[in-house]
Design goal:
Blueprint: E1 2-6, E2 19-23, E3 34-42, H1 46-50, E4 72-79, E5 89-92, E6 99-102, E7 108-109, H2 125-138, E8 145-149, H3 156-165, E9 169-174, H4 177-185, E10 191-194, H5 200-207, E11 212-216, H6 221-227, E12 231-239, H7 258-267, E13 271-274, H8 281-297, E14 305-309, H9 314-321, E15 329-333
Parallel strand pairs: 8-9, 8-11, 9-10, 11-12, 12-13, 14-15
Antiparallel strand pairs: 1-2, 3-4, 3-6, 3-15, 4-5, 5-7
Helix pairs in contact: 2-3, 2-8, 5-6
The structure holds NADPH dihydro-nicotinamide-adenine-dinucleotide phosphate.
NADPH dihydro-nicotinamide-adenine-dinucleotide phosphate (NDP) binds next to helix 2 and helix 6.
Protein name: NADP-dependent oxidoreductase
Keywords: Oxidoreductase
Domain Enoyl reductase (ER): 14-332
Length: 337
């Protein structure tokens, strides 16, 4: 069994040395346990926060020397659990390793799902995040201007496509020309800007002549700076993530801008709301599953995956994710089915 353990807390952007590849025997399942072989490992931005010494408030940090955590699609290899049998395909949390044990409580049967890796992307946690954040918190109305960055990524691509389905005008933001073309030609967004263009803020103002009604916050940083002056009275800002800051070691340079932010929220009556998707499964996952199945089945919504081969390549792929090198939902193919 191979696994990546956390070797050091990253100082800024993680390096390959912050995780360590270890090999050991394949574990044997005890009473009530299931032995899982990982087929696909999901790589997600939140993992960066779990690598810090003090983790985020919503989840425990990964202790040094322990396996990196992560959502996975697994094949059951052996089972001492009444609900699972060898050969079953399940969604689990095996982390960055070939094999893992589970007591079954965190497993979801996937049946004979055609594209099981989508259970880690558009049909799973990131897609659900887009659905709840946009529809429940963003509440787009027909004709609204919706702005979303990382707009070809796991969450952002679904946000933009659902916004289009709801009749909104979508102004997408991405890093790079290949992503920009894809957002316009394949995803059908109305405008797509490159956040790295020197005059990006001016381009955004020009692309939003009626202001911004919904800003789905995925990134923070310079994108948020450009968005803030354009927000309309009564705008909604679901705060999903601020990936531009996950590697920050110090406070940003320049003057304190909190008063500017707070007075904009006050004067324009902006609704800013953070959310963590774990809270919403019980209430909303069924509706999400139903709607997504319909949208994907009818071709109204497309999913793009960025698939990397081999567990050994997970660290580089993860570092790339934090720099925008992924193009679509990032998954690692760990084992042959
Ligand atoms: P993505 O597939 O979108 O990949 C991350 C993307 O972020 C990159 O491809 C890049 O896109 C963009 N990015 C990276 N660095 C920067 C930067 N410095 N400034 C601006 N953009 C940057 O990842 P996900 O869809 O999985 O996650 C998107 C966001 O949603 C993250 O902030 C994540 O933490 C958050 N999230 C929150 C959840 C919640 O429960 N609240 C659940 C799931 C995700 P590009 O090159 O196009 O700019």
């Amino acid at each position: 069994n191979r696994r990546f353990a956390l070797a050091a807390h990253p100082q800024g952007l993680p390096t390959p040395q912050d995780v360590r590849l270890e090999t050991g025997p394949v574990p044997a399942p005890g009473d009530g346990q299931v032995l899982l072989r990982t087929l696909y490992l999901s790589l997600d931005p939140y993992m960066r926060n779990l690598m810090d010494e003090v983790g985020p408030v919503y989840a425990p940090a990964v202790p040094l020397g322990e396996a990196m955590v992560g959502g996975t699609v697994n094949r059951v290899v052996a089972s001492n659990h009444p609900d699972f049998k060898p050969g079953d395909l399940v969604l689990g949390n095996a982390g960055w390793q070939d094999y893992a044990l589970s007591d079954g409580s965190d497993l979801t049967a996937l049946g004979d799902m055609a594209e099981p890796s989508h259970a880690l992307g558009g049909l799973g946690m990131p897609g659900f995040t887009a659905y709840v954040g946009l529809l429940d918190l963003g509440q787009p109305k027909p004709g609204d201007t919706v702005v979303v960055a990382a707009a070809t990524g796991a969450v952002g691509a679904v946000v933009g496509q659902i916004a289009k389905l709801k009749g909104a005008r979508v102004v997408a933001i991405v890093g790079g020309e290949d992503k920009r073309r894809y957002a316009l030609d394949e995803l059908g967004f109305d405008v797509c800007l490159d956040r790295r263009d020197p005059d990006f803020a001016a381009q955004l103002a020009q692309a939003c002549p009626d202001g911004i009604d919904v800003y789905f916050e995925n990134v923070g940083g310079e994108v948020f700076d450009a968005v803030l002056p354009l927000l309309n009275i009564g705008a909604r800002v679901p705060v999903c993530g601020i990936i531009a800051h996950y590697n920050d070691k110090t406070a940003p340079a320049g003057p304190d801008r909190v008063p500017l932010l707070m007075s904009a929220i006050l004067q324009k009556r902006i609704k800013v709301q953070g959310f963590i998707i774990f809270d919403h499964y019980e209430q909303r996952f069924e509706a999400f599953r139903r709607d997504m199945a319909e949208w994907i089945g009818s071709g109204a919504l497309k999913l793009r995956e960025d698939r990397v081969d081999g567990l050994e390549n997970a660290p580089e792929a993860f570092i790339g994710l934090l720099q925008g090198r992924n193009f679509g939902k990032l998954v690692v193919r760990v084992g042959e089915d």
